[in-house]
Design brief:
Elements (H helix, E strand, L loop, with lengths): L1 H21 L7 E5 L16 E2 L3 H4 L7 E5 L13 E5 L3 E6 L4 E9 L3 E2 L2 E2 L5 E5 L2 E7 L12 E9 L3 E8 L6 E3 L1 E6 L10 E5 L2 E4 L7 E9 L17 E2 L10 E5 L18 H4 L1 E5 L12 E6 L6 E8 L12 E5 L2 E7 L1 H4 L8 E8 L5 E8 L11 E2 L1 E8 L25 H21 L44 H7 L8 E5 L2 E7 L5 E7 L7 H13 L8 E5 L6 E5 L4 E2 L1 H4 L10 H20 L5 E2 L8 E3 L5 E3 L6 E2 L8 E2 L11 H6 L1 E2 L1 H17 L15 H11 L16 H14 L10 H16 L48 H8 L6
Parallel strand pairs: 1-2, 15-25, 17-18
Antiparallel strand pairs: 1-14, 3-4, 4-13, 5-12, 6-11, 6-14, 7-8, 9-10, 9-12, 11-17, 15-16, 17-28, 19-20, 20-27, 21-26, 22-25, 22-28, 23-24, 23-26, 29-30, 30-31, 31-33, 32-33, 34-36, 35-38, 36-37, 39-40
Helix pairs in contact: 1-5, 9-11, 9-14, 11-13, 13-14
The protein binds 2-acetamido-2-deoxy-beta-D-glucopyranose (4 copies).
Keywords: ATP-binding, Glycoprotein, Kinase, Membrane, Nucleotide-binding, Serine/threonine-protein kinase, Signal, Transferase, Transmembrane, Transmembrane helix
Main location: membrane
Subcellular location: Membrane
Length: 842
Amino acid sequence: MEDGKFHFLSLTLLLFFFITLSQAFTPEDNYLINCGSTLETTPIDDTRSFIGDSSKQGSIFLTSTGSLVIKDQNPSRDSSVLYHTARVFTKESSFKFGVKRTGTHLVRLHFYPFVAQSYDLSSAQFDVSVNGFSLLSDFSVGRGNSSGSLLVLKEYLVMVDSEDIVMLFSPLGKSGFGFVNAIEVFSAPDDLVVDQGVHLISSKGAGIYNGLSSKVLETVHRINVGGLKITPFNDTLWRTWIPDENFLILKSAAKPVARSRPPNYEEGLATREIAPDQVYMTAQEMNKDNITLASKFNITWAFPLNPNVMEYLVRLHFCDIVSTSLNQLYFDVFINDYYAYKDLDLSSLSDHLLAAPYYVDFVTNSENSENIHVSVGPSELSSSMRINAILNGVEIMRIVDGGGSISRSGSKKKPLGVLLGAAVGGFCLLCVVILAVLVAIKCRKSKSKPKPGETGTWAPLRVPGSSSYSKVSEGTTNASYGVNLGLKIPFAEIQHATNNFDKNLIIGSGGFGLVYKGVMRDNTKVAVKRGVPESRQGLPEFQSEITVLSKIRHRHLVGLVGYCEEQSEMILVYEFMEKGPLKNHLYGSGPLSPLSWKQRLEICIGSARGVHYLHTGSTQGVIHRDIKSTNILLDEGYVAKVADFGLSRAGPCIDETHVSTGVKGSFGYLDPEYFKRQQLTDKSDVYSFGVVLLEVLCARPAVDPSLSREQVNLAEWGMLWQKKGLLRQIIDQNLVGEIKSSSLRKFGETAEKCLADYGVDRPTMGDVLWNLEYVLQLQLQEPGIPREPHEDSTTAASELPIPAAIPRDISTNIRIPANMSDGSSVVTTSQIFSQLITNEGR
Ligand SMILES: *[C@@H]1O[C@H](CO)[C@@H](O)[C@H](O)[C@H]1NC(C)=O
Ligand SMILES: *[C@@H]1O[C@H](CO)[C@@H](O)[C@H](O)[C@H]1NC(C)=O
Ligand SMILES: *[C@@H]1O[C@H](CO)[C@@H](O)[C@H](O)[C@H]1NC(C)=O
Ligand SMILES: *[C@@H]1O[C@H](CO)[C@@H](O)[C@H](O)[C@H]1NC(C)=O
């Protein structure tokens, strides 16, 4: 497997040169007009040629008259040829462009005022609309700016849903004329603006923003952080990116960094069209060299805005070009002083690759301010040695009010044209096809194992393979529970995949119904969970699971392939997990070979990562509520993934500390505080996770009624021995002699903290994760250096293998419960047990 991956990587590298040369994006609709000119010209900083609208070829786009052509008699030496001519509109006039492919289009208008033939373009005053939607109203370029060039470039992203684009110029007011020097209208890549994963940040709290792709967006800032200006010549979509220096509030807080090799684009994260290599190859990081700054600080940029506009899209680009190994960099992102992303861990979002480009979209309410502030700073999780924070790029776009899909009434929708730009020569085309096939074959091969972390978080969902139902669109959501309709799978497809629910394919059963193994038409293996037909009892769980899983994606969470809700069926289709539940590898029937301590720790770390992501990965956070060893599944390579989101709930909102809810969950794993107060926090999951840790160590069920009274409940039994310092007495027989004392000690302490009676005393999942990584490092340490790193910080430290992550000792995190007098009413787990013993759990 590792080998296959290596070959794939080297193949990719080998062909990289070719790919970059030949895979350039080719827009299907591509109109580039040099207005007022008879010439076809290619600007110096561009790669494309613009045709003159006064030439035979170009004039066909000009649909109505009332315009004339002017030419600058003394063009400035350094202005582009494009700006030596202009078309002046003295009456309402329009351009009309045919649409071969509906979808998002980029529209750019170039205005470069000069004086010619009694027209002073800087005094022009006019409106511009596209298909009746106003882009510029009462617009006037003015005299440009003494500091820079005279050029005013307006760029829009517009969803087009009609046969053609009509761009109307209407002169206004005193001047009585309008003008334009150049026009670009071209198709954008499908994934440039997507609806999924857009976070709303506002004073009223965080949330999800819907329907972004149908809004008209106007570019306000496009910044290559830590890098140089990028001209259309070097950008995949012929954009201009400018350096960030002038926007930094404290220049000395930031230090530019660069990487010489191209970034590692990964499917499901950012693509080269989202931002080009050069954006991801440079960044600003914290300037830790400047000793006059505090040990922890933010880097903050202020981007000026028009205070009258309410909503802005802020797209942040990240690529970890500063770390030397995975999981070193944890940082927080703020927009306008609100948390936008807490504990961002870029390497966990990619498939364990450094320097994988990633972007996140936020919509923010500008609150009439004149600036938008973007800050990055070290997260609480960063160890003192690895404090850092980075940013690679920023785009800020105004969300134009009243946006909506621009379609002209009465026009029929045209099917997507399959037309290749003439620019692609036959040879190039052949290269592309051969490469695509090669890569596709390689991808498919490496997919025989459900590829971990196939897509990053918040990225648009991709259904494995690609058949009729693989197109994901969240445009129309089911009003009742915001379900991603693109994940719907026809019942017939599921019948086919499971051989009509063949009994021999049953791989499990639960409260919800039966689970079948299935194979989709594209040969992806899936697990099909079928709710008991005719009973709608599980409906809330079913909907909750779809809602949660369709919004998130993580290497350590079992991925949802799709669902079916036809003919009163409730069916969920997941990626298939070859090795089944963790529980089956720990105890019970079956001749499974016992897992080593290292394997067990890796499984714990993986599932901790999954749960940590649930808690922190989205602005609101999700509480799983049913963490247990049967809900941790293992794939072919024993990579752990957390499953079963049927009970999960959105976490508390910013100003609440908990969610009140009826007690649900599985017996033996229930947080005593949650049980007592019915208040759900993410610390309830931490408790359940502590029980799983003991299960992994002791290889016995959380509750075993066949044992003596004091042994029945694993959490109590384990803590009894842990407190005596004799945890080793009750470990799995298969582990005897394998676990190093330091590793076991730390593991026991970690479990103990998780099982604290009060949520406030328990560590966060992030802390648990750090500590488990430390436990693993302690286990892997070479014999002969049994000391913990902090016990020997001088010479031996440099010889220590890795500490991939320097852990924070969780004992430093303990908070004293605010109200100890509550202790009198503590319900012990055994009391709960006696109340619930007849309940089978779920
Ligand atoms: C394109 O990028 C290269 C490498 O960064 C640079 O040397 C060149 O000047 C750029 N070209 C233009 C037209 O910006
Ligand atoms: C040039 O731009 C700056 C800031 O963008 C502005 O303050 C100034 O008034 C502008 N000058 C002219 C002549 O428009
Ligand atoms: C360090 O920071 C201080 C205060 O922000 C600044 O004045 C100084 O120029 C910085 N020094 C360096 C070397 O960046
Ligand atoms: C970073 O900025 C945020 C938002 O303004 C603030 O809450 C936080 O305390 C800052 N962090 C540091 C280390 O200054």
